[in-house]
From TrEMBL, chain B:
<dbReference type="GO" id="GO:0005730">
    <property type="term" value="C:nucleolus"/>
</dbReference>
<dbReference type="Pfam" id="PF03657">
    <property type="entry name" value="UPF0113"/>
</dbReference>
<keyword id="KW-0539">Nucleus</keyword>
<dbReference type="InterPro" id="IPR040598">
    <property type="entry name" value="NIP7_N"/>
</dbReference>
<keyword id="KW-0690">Ribosome biogenesis</keyword>
<protein>
    <recommendedName>
        <fullName>60S ribosome subunit biogenesis protein NIP7 homolog</fullName>
    </recommendedName>
</protein>
<dbReference type="InterPro" id="IPR005155">
    <property type="entry name" value="UPF0113_PUA"/>
</dbReference>
<dbReference type="Pfam" id="PF17833">
    <property type="entry name" value="pre-PUA_NIP7"/>
</dbReference>
<feature type="domain" description="PUA">
    <location>
        <begin position="103"/>
        <end position="178"/>
    </location>
</feature>
<dbReference type="InterPro" id="IPR016686">
    <property type="entry name" value="Ribosomal_synth_fac_NIP7"/>
</dbReference>
<dbReference type="GO" id="GO:0003723">
    <property type="term" value="F:RNA binding"/>
</dbReference>
<dbReference type="InterPro" id="IPR055359">
    <property type="entry name" value="Nip7_N_euk"/>
</dbReference>
<dbReference type="GO" id="GO:0042254">
    <property type="term" value="P:ribosome biogenesis"/>
</dbReference>
<dbReference type="InterPro" id="IPR002478">
    <property type="entry name" value="PUA"/>
</dbReference>
<comment type="function">
    <text>Required for proper 27S pre-rRNA processing and 60S ribosome subunit assembly.</text>
</comment>
<comment type="subunit">
    <text>Interacts with pre-ribosome complex.</text>
</comment>
<comment type="similarity">
    <text>Belongs to the NIP7 family.</text>
</comment>
Length: 833, 188
């Protein structure tokens, strides 16, 4: 360490140091400039001194040094004090921020303590990342609490620091480096983290106390968010979120026009404008940060959570579009938690329309539509399910038309009245009148802009657009699944869930909003649904080319029914093709694979709620449902039986089927023989059959099923006009739910042997269903298992036959030995003889 | 009595197809239920004195024993060829069509009479209609008690029916059960 060079540095450096200390101080210029001016002189003098000092090393230099150092010190102290006196006004927080950095200035030698300290901090913080693995995924709600905690901790930290300072101040300059190292060590990672936290908390608190004057510290928080430490960044994001949540105003900040900028404004307005401008700028920066962080895996959850919360609390504020876009993008994220969060946010956006006047709803729906389009409909179902929580005001349309009808009349009358009145008016009066009306219009416009309620016209147009986007999405999904379901026909083993994830929620949504569909679409929609449900004109070849699952197809039928019912109440339309489809789908139902609830719902909507069935079709359904209820569990059976009973009640002629007389007599129409596998209810010849299933069902283990069966059987003895005493008024769906609940409750007992149960059930199916249907079923899935079983079986059989053969051989040998013995005996006898 | 030639078969089938659609196959392939033999075979179409009959194979076999001028008919008559060569379904075919038809129209009970007098079906008397009925489809007209009353041609699709005004014709009359009384001589 050459002392001369060091001294040289020292002498020249101190003036340069202040700017190094903190950049912010550069602004505090007056003193600096003065100092520099003064310093130039000093520097020149020092330069002279230096030349001399080169000649003689130790003594002179030391002298000069001391002098210089002392003088410089005095200067700097003065300057620092002045600066500190200035600072508290503007940057109290900054002072606190920099206290750590600024402190080493007090050391005797006045070396480059700042830099080393800073470096040390960074190092520590970077090492702190590794050392500390404690999870700090701070929740937004906990943020406030944390800030409090952090404040307390910070106080502790401060006291520690003060100790450190005391230590550093005490020893001489020679010991300084040692002390610094100690400081470094003591400022462990944890403390640094705590410090950061405390810093954030401090800023946050001050922001919340007085956001208007402290608005600039948002920048500091943003800077903290650029920290290397992930946890600090996360904390920073969360605390910024908490701050923004509180200080975002309830209005949208708009860009000032040039005209407005030129106008002289009062101090308050200026202040306000500055505040808004800063807020907006930092908000933008924050969002950009969030969006960029969203792409990094470890910040993903935090960033999305921040955006969701922001969208939830301030859907009216600026830059909503960008938040909305990324939230919608994450609707189908692979992360369950993130997806759920986004869904909740969008849902609340739809429900609380008052917050943003419905504009965000449109945007969200449109974005979802685009999203679906871009991703080729391969998304998580959640992204569409969200749309179910949309609300449409149905009265709005009516009111509007009524108002519009009323309006022109009134206007006309008024105009008629006003026109003759205005004529005699003088020019002066006219201008006055115009002025008044103009002013009124302006006031009205302003009022409307300020108030959150929309006038019905606007609201209506918003709803219209939302609906358009909504149905665009739905129809796109339908169309897509239709086109692929045909082309997919060849690949048999493609499971339908993979390729049509959106179909189920889409159908659900269509069912829900069916009353809002334009009648123009109706025909196409129904045709589309029909195709999806697997119906084709050539009924004898259907089904192999359709790969939608049974539940999905049933749902298509249900939706079609709902759509028609809600729209065409006036005209009674018979959806025959869908009945045919249901008729066939009943055969394909498998309790483990398909949703029984959907089937019960289909029975309810198509058969139970339907107004009128014609006789032949009703009979076909009755017969098929009876067979169906024999083959499945009690829940399915009760749903089927309730429907069956309802059909029998409505169609008294079908009660012939309850008689123990096959053939059906004159009613059997043209089909004399019952065909259990018929594809068309009209050609099944069900009227010629007898409902023998019911007497079997009377002995069902489930009390409710057996009582229902005997109730139905009692109908046979009654007049066609009489009806039996109703047992329950539940519809098939409710009954199904009740019983399946009971089954769930009693399951723990049966749970010991689920595979057995399954097998038994499957065995039943074999009895009741045709071989044709079975081939199509999930036969292949069991192939291996079956093979194994058969192998075992035949191995045993082979063993038995082998055993038999061996036994026979043994017997044979034994008998031959016996014979030989006998022969010997006889031989001996002969020999003796 | 003879089997229909190719041209006649196509005209008859085209007419029937309007009503039954793909069920036409079933109409001809179903096992017969009439006839003196224990195995009556399938149904077939025969032409006799310009009328087309729908009869089981065993009946036809027996009928060949009767000389042409003395044979009044065999099985169910379903229609006749006009002098111009076109084919008309007659009311006899009603049961057959009703069992196999795809499109049906139900009439309100108090308007059945009007239809049975030979009038077309206006929208006001329409109680129910099969959903995907298209224009020019054949439809079977039923009473609300599911008794087939007659048949005709749809004048407008089920969807247009909604928009049509109450007096608009929905089904053009072709034939109805009332003809058994009104045109008794002609039918036999």
């Amino acid at each position: 360490m050459g002392k001369s060079s060091k001294k040289k540095n020292k002498v020249i450096l101190p003036p340069q140091l202040p700017p190094d200390v903190d950049d912010d101080e550069v602004v505090v210029s007056d003193e600096d400039v003065e100092f520099f001016r003064g310093n130039e002189g000093h520097a020149r003098a020092l330069a002279r001194l230096d030349r001399k000092s080169i000649d003689s090393y130790v003594t002179r230099v030391a002298d000069h040094d001391e002098d210089e150092v002392e003088r410089l010190y005095e200067e700097r102290e003065r300057r620092r004090k002045a600066a500190e006196a200035l600072k508290p006004k503007k940057e109290q927080e900054d002072l606190e921020v920099d206290r750590v950095d600024a402190l080493p200035v007090k050391t005797l030698q006045g070396e480059l303590v700042f830099n080393t300290a800073k470096k040390a901090r960074y190092d520590d913080s970077s090492s702190g990342v590794k050392s500390k693995s404690e999870d700090k995924g701070a929740d937004a709600k906990q943020a406030a609490q944390k800030e409090w905690k952090a404040k307390f901790k910070k106080e502790k930290g401060d006291s520690k620091l003060r100790n450190v300072h005391a230590q550093t101040e005490a020893p001489n300059g020679k010991l300084q480096s040692k002390v610094l190292e100690e400081v470094k060590e003591e400022l462990s990672a944890e403390e640094l983290f705590e410090k950061k936290k405390a810093q954030l908390a401090e800023i946050g608190m001050s922001m919340l106390e007085n956001p208007e004057s402290n608005i600039r510290s948002l920048n500091d928080m943003l800077i903290i968010c650029n920290d290397k430490d992930q946890k600090v960044v996360k904390l920073g994001l969360m605390s910024l979120l908490a701050v923004f949540r509180d200080i975002i105003p309830s209005y949208r900040i708009r860009q000032l026009t040039e005209k407005e900028l030129t106008v002289e404004v009062s101090k308050d307005v200026k202040k306000m404008r500055y505040y808004e401008y800063t807020l907006l700028r930092s908000y933008k920066a924050y969002l950009q940060k969030l969006i960029s962080l969203e792409k990094k895996s470890h910040f993903y959850t935090v960033a999305v959570r921040c955006m969701c919360t922001l969208l939830d609390t301030a859907p009216h504020f600026n830059f909503r579009e960008s938040i909305l876009a990324s939230v919608v993008r994450n609707l189908s994220s692979p992360d369950d938690a993130v997806r759920k969060m986004c869904c909740e946010t969008i849902r609340s956006l739809f429900i609380n329309e008052g917050k943003h006047r419905g504009e965000a709803t449109i945007e969200a729906v449109r974005l979802i539509a685009d999203h679906v389009k871009l991703n080729d409909r391969q998304l998580h179902p959640n992204s569409i399910e969200v749309l179910l929580s949309l609300r449409f005001d149905e009265d709005l349309g009516k009111d509007e038309t009524e108002v519009e009808k009323g309006k022109p009349k009134k206007n006309k009358r008024r105009q008629n009245q006003e026109v003759p009145k205005q004529l005699p008016m003088s020019d002066k009066k006219k201008t006055k009148h115009e002025l008044i009306s103009k002013a009124r219009k302006e006031v009205d416009a302003e009022l409307r802009a300020v108030s959150f309620t929309l006038d019905p016209k606007e609201k209506r147009s918003i709803q219209k657009e939302t609906l358009a986007a909504l149905f665009e999405t739905y129809f796109r999904i339908l169309k897509h699944s239709m086109s692929t379901s045909n082309s997919r026909g060849k690949a048999i083993n493609v499971s339908s869930d993979v390729s049509h994830p959106l179909l189920a929620p889409c159908l659900e949504g269509l069912g829900k909003f069916s009353h809002l569909i334009d009648l123009g679409f109706m025909g196409e929609l129904i045709a589309c649904l029909k195709k999806l449900s697997g119906y084709s004109d050539h009924q004898f070849k259907i089904l192999p080319d359709n790969t939608l699952s049974v539940s999905e197809r049933l749902q298509c039928c249900i939706v079609a029914f709902k759509v028609w019912r809600s729209n065409l109440e006036a005209l009674n339309v018979d959806l025959q093709d869908f009945f045919v489809q249901l008729f066939n789908l009943i055969l394909e139902y498998r309790p483990e694979r398909d949703h029984g609830e959907v089937l019960a719902d289909a029975l309810k909507t198509l058969l139970w709620e339907g107004k009128h069935q014609d006789m032949i079709r009703a009979a076909a359904f009755i017969k098929r449902l009876a067979t169906f209820s024999l083959s499945f569990g009690s829940a399915e059976a009760i749903a089927a039986l309730i429907t069956l009973k309802h059909l029998l009640l409505k169609n008294s002629k079908c009660r012939n089927m309850l008689e123990n007389d096959s053939g059906g007599g004159s009613l059997s129409c043209l089909v004399a023989k019952y065909d259990p596998e018929a594809k068309d209810p009209y050609l099944s010849g069900a009227l010629a059959s007898v409902l023998w299933e019911l007497s079997l069902l009377q002995k069902h283990y489930d009390a409710s099923v057996s009582s229902m069966a005997s109730n139905i059987l009692s109908m046979a003895n009654l007049n066609p006009t009489q009806n039996p005493v109703p047992i329950s008024n539940a519809n098939p769906l409710e009954a199904y739910k009740d019983l399946s609940m009971e089954r769930e409750l009693s399951k723990p007992v049966n749970k010991m042997l689920p595979p057995n149960c399954k097998k038994m059930r499957r065995g039943k199916e074999f009895v009741s269903l045709s071989s044709d249907v079975l081939e199509k079923s999930d036969y292949r899935a069991d192939g291996d298992e079956l093979k194994e079983k058969l192998k075992n079986h035949f191995a045993v059989l082979r063993g038995i036959s082998e055993n038999e053969r061996l036994r026979a051989e043994l017997n044979h040998t034994l008998s031959s030995i016996n014979l030989y013995k006998e022969y010997k005996k006889q031989k001996k006898k002969i020999a003796r003889a | 009595m003879r089997a229909l030639d190719e041209k006649e078969t196509t005209t008859v089938f085209e007419k029937l197809f309007k009503f039954t659609g793909p069920n036409l196959k079933h109409l001809l392939e179903r096992p017969a239920v009439e006839g003196p033999d224990p195995q009556p075979g399938r149904y077939c179409l025969r032409l006799h004195k310009n009328r087309v009959y729908y009869a089981s194979e065993s009946l036809v076999r027996r009928a060949t024993a009767v000389s042409r001028p003395r044979l009044a008919g065999v099985g169910t008559p379903i229609g006749k060829f006009t002098h111009g060569g076109s084919f008309h379904l007659t009311v006899h075919a009603l049961d057959l069509l009703a069992a196999h038809a795809r499109r049906r129209v139900w009439l309100k009970p108090d308007t059945e009479r009007s239809f049975l007098f030979g009038n077309s079906v206006p929208k006001s008397s329409l109680a129910r209609i099969t959903e995907n009925t298209k224009m020019n489809d054949g439809v079977v007209v039923m009473s609300m008690a599911d008794v087939p009353l007659g048949f005709g041609i749809a004048a407008r699709s089920a969807q247009d029916c909604r928009k049509a005004d109450t007096n608009a014709v929905v089904v053009l009359h072709q034939s109805d059960a009332g003809e058994y009384l009104r045109r008794e001589e002609e039918l036999m």
